[in-house]
Amino acid sequence: MGTAERLQRLRHALAECEETDNLLIASAENRRYMSGFTGSAGALLITPDEQYIIVDSRYTQQAADQSPEFSRVDVTENLRETLGEFLCDLDPGAVGFEAGHTTYEEYSKMREEIAAVEWVPTEGIVEDLRQVKEAAEIQTIRAAAEIADASFQEILPSVAPGRVEEDIALDFEFCMRRRGAEGLAFPLIIASGVRSSMPHGQASGKEIEEGDFITFDYGSRRGGYCSDATRTVVVGEVDERQSEVYCVVQRAQRAAVEAIEPGKTGAEIDRVARDIIDDAGYGEYFGHGLGHGVGLAVHERPSLSRRRGTTPLEPGMVVTVEPGIYIPDWGGVRIEDLVVVTEDGSETLTGVDKELVVIDA
Ligand code: ZN
Ligand code: ZN
Hints:
Layout (H helix, E strand, L loop, with lengths): L2 H13 L7 E3 L2 H8 L7 E4 L4 E5 L4 H7 L4 E4 L4 H12 L3 E5 L5 H10 L4 E5 L2 H6 L4 H21 L9 H14 L4 E2 L4 E4 L20 E6 L1 E3 L2 E2 L2 E7 L4 H20 L6 H14 L11 E3 L6 E5 L13 E4 L2 E4 L3 E4 L2 E5 L4 E3 L8 E3 L2
Parallel strand pairs: 1-5, 3-4, 5-6, 12-20
Antiparallel strand pairs: 1-2, 2-3, 7-10, 8-9, 9-12, 10-11, 13-14, 15-18, 16-17, 18-19
Helix pairs in contact: 7-8, 9-10
The site of one zinc ion has 5 residues, from loops.
């Protein structure tokens, strides 16, 4: 599916929007999704029968190369001024803007300086289109996940007591880059010992110690797309409580992955994992949602959570399944896989074994 088809789907969505059928797109990921343009600044304007890309001189050539389906509008002084003059000529009446990606300051200035236009806040129109991935997008995410998994397996043998989390993170990142990643999907989470009770404990100056749980949450970025996976390992002897907590998370994670199929909502899948953790007596230690969509952004729609997981799953959606148990002053376990929803269930894109890995101390 190319740009033409994405534009067609967007226009279809805009036709259903009562207040406007024009949309200004300024957020990086939505801009890239709709036009292929990867520059760091610029905007798209989509009207019922034309599409424009508005860029400054740094990106004239790049926009021509990456977005040939778009008519180019060249910024003279600054983007808002050029946009204002252009819209004044075009006289489109109402124009939608991305409420979730526009600061209050930008909105105030648009209203003030481009007063001929009625600005209509819109929410998640392009994000909704992005939820269901095309085959080529899934292939790219799979490649990103493979790079991250292979890198995790490459660095794991070097993890030992005395090594510093940040130092392991540096090796891990280097390894992903060497294997073809453009960069990290997000700052690496390497949280050992009591720090593993922090669901998002970024790598710190702490040394690995015997008896630690270590949570590795890692993802690479390739072709603009992210991957996301988590594994928890233990250093030295495993005690009874560690083994029990790990088993509960593992059971919850497996059951939730098996429960995924089109038509079920994210909240229903969350419930499957949460029930298992609740029944084992650890419900109060699983504070976050079960998962989230992954694509050009590492956190995107749909949500697999109790409150926000209202969207029925559809084939082509790529989501994480990541239950965890985090016990303050003790430690925590999370296991996370990235799966794509298929016609009759799901396929897992992340491939590292989920049995508890014990690192020799
Ligand atoms: Zn993650
Ligand atoms: Zn995640």
